[in-house]
Design a protein that fits this description.
seven-stranded antiparallel sheet; about 300 residues
Length: about 300
């Protein structure tokens, strides 16, 4: 592939991720504004995102890009981060064998968006979404989105929020069925977001995909855009359905214990966390996925 083509693809992907970030941040701030006056925490000011740029060096000490953290602590969102980064450099020798194309040439470029939201109201599910474009001697897309209800009675495949979330992800796949088999990506998510040491899923799933390189870059990119768009549309809707529901101490306790599972997964298994830490990423941004308050009883 010629340099001008791959550069154009890099630029297009990066611009899309950053535009999606802006759209999601605006949608989440609108949710903060929309909290009814009789809802819990409605007396607090509506939250707003604070953006913090950061830069990195690779394992040789050479400048290697960076990103922008967008964090909000609001009255609906207890803690939400919507981050974009574009990084480049060389993979450290011990990491090259794990990345397609890096064993032959350690140079890489990667851009993406990563989001995690933890809510005040236990009736509102936590959520995670990310999409990315990675270039070594190969080039591929990866990402997905998954939902984590924190109340046990909501952690079922027949819960209305679960059904709506799965339907949104299926719609994104079905619109691009030639490159995005829904059943495969749903199963991949179920198997990936699984706590082996507890023999349980982290949440109710969604979709997950990686190393997506079908030979039709435009189709792969269009699907990745569809995943981001589906998330942008469905999650604020689910928040609005639940954010005024009253809760008590027992539900808050259940929420905090369930959040512990999130911490366990991210520190033990999450490839994004491992990738970021091992490639010199911003530690505060990487670990911003952690819930603000957690309990292990």
């Amino acid at each position: 592939m010629d340099t001008s083509t791959i550069d154009a693809r890099k630029s297009g992907a990066r611009a899309w991720f950053e535009n999606l970030r802006d759209e999601i941040c605006a949608a989440f701030e609108a949710v903060e504004d929309a909290l009814p006056a009789n809802a819990p925490y409605a007396d607090r000011p509506a939250g707003r995102f604070v953006r913090t740029p950061w830069n990195r060096t690779d394992h040789t000490g050479t400048p290697g890009g960076g990103g922008v953290m967008s964090m909000m602590h609001g009255r609906v969102f207890e803690k939400v981060g919507v981050h974009c980064s574009t990084v480049h450099g060389e993979f450290a020798p011990e990491f090259r064998k794990d990345i397609p194309g890096a064993a032959d040439d350690p140079r890489f470029w990667a851009s993406g968006i990563s989001l995690i939201a933890h809510m005040h109201n236990p009736h509102v599910p936590a959520v995670h979404m990310n999409t990315r474009f990675v270039v070594t001697t190969k080039a591929w897309f990866g990402g997905g989105a998954d939902l984590t209800p924190v109340l046990d009675r909501r952690r079922t495949q027949t819960d209305p929020d679960t059904l709506a979330f799965h339907a949104a992800m299926k719609s994104a796949c079905d619109a691009h069925a030639a490159v995005a088999p829904y059943d495969k990506f749903k199963t991949w998510c179920d198997e990936y977001f699984f706590l082996k040491h507890r023999n349980e899923m982290r949440g109710i799933g969604g979709i997950f995909y990686d190393y997506l390189d079908t030979g039709d870059w435009d189709a792969d990119f269009a699907f990745t855009q569809a995943v981001g768009g589906a998330f942008r549309n469905i999650y604020p809707e689910l928040v609005r359905k639940n954010f005024a529901t009253p809760w008590g101490e027992a539900e808050r306790e259940e929420q905090l214990v369930r959040r512990g599972r999130y911490v366990e997964f991210n520190l033990l298994y999450d490839r994004g966390t491992i990738f970021g830490l091992r490639t010199g990423g911003n530690v505060e941004s990487i670990l911003s996925s952690m819930p603000p308050v957690v309990k292990w009883p």
